[in-house]
């Protein structure tokens, strides 16, 4: 995630153990140590709110403002500004998740950072065959945290934070509720703004036009219908040519319904021509936005098996090197940018993974 430019906690080290533990099966234990500027979550505020410990709630909020949002300290209502700042960061974060096909898997309010960074990696997964309703956590039976539900779950979690902050927002309950409502109403427009900008960059668009959303939606609908690999499609789209249809054969052949792609490609070409987009310049910019490599679950599984079964950590080192700079070509490692093997479809992850 750090290599992708998405705010995140960082992994410091893995500590292995020969002690047996029981998760979904008996296996050897290990501990991943992660670092972050803060591990304070929305849920940290909820604990004090539901215990009616409002003095401690204020101490926590003051600490967060002092340590992480010092620019808010002198505001007329720093707690309202804190809520607004967290809403903005969360909207931007989830838009970035959606832009790379990342599914968190367990987006409860205690897994949401007050700093707007990705926290609590559990049954996560990067989208492969594009499916808006993709569920990466096999214990999420109702799809609460499916890919297309992440933006609205972000709003739900922010509403939990807003409720926890009510005692600090205003001494009058009705006024506090109104402040919270007005702040939360900004989430959708801020998310849409960030997501639209991300998708424009993924398509190599530099200007804003009214038809942009329809162009993005049209492509995603085609991808969903043909189950195209999310990352592979967008990386290939970097080489789209406005001037030479024959040069787009590789992209076209990814689709089952090639005629449908042709119709979309014509709209895309016209949109690019509106801003006199140059193929070579656009390709460079798009390759800085659409990663060639993502951490697919089967890659992690292979690295785990080598490390656990053979005490061979070379695959971990290789993945770290590639994923540290996922937008680069990494010649000689093309297999890591291809479609997953058939057996990868048998991998499932849960909170116990």
List keywords for this structure.
mainly alpha; 3 domains; globular; two-stranded antiparallel sheet; 353 residues; single chain; 12 helices
Strand content: 5-15%
Number of H- or I-type helical stretches: 12
Largest sheet, described in full? 2 strands, antiparallel
Task: Characterize the overall form.
Answer: globular
- The separation of the N and C termini measures 19 Å
> What is the radius of gyration?
22 Å
Strand order of the largest sheet: 1-2
Q: Residue share in helices? A: 40-55%
Indicate the topology:
Elements: E1 10-22, E2 26-35, H1 42-50, H2 54-68, H3 78-100, E3 102-103, E4 125-126, H4 150-169, H5 173-202, H6 212-226, H7 230-237, H8 249-252, H9 258-274, H10 279-287, H11 297-310, H12 314-324
Antiparallel strand pairs: 1-2, 3-4
Helix pairs in contact: 1-2, 1-4, 3-4, 3-5, 4-5, 6-9, 11-12
Short description:
The chain is mainly alpha-helical and 353 residues long.
Descriptive notes:
The chain has 353 residues and is mostly helical. 50% of the residues lie in helices and 8% in strands. It has 12 helices and 4 strands. The longest helix is centred in the middle third of the chain and has 30 residues. The protein is globular. 30% of the residues are buried.
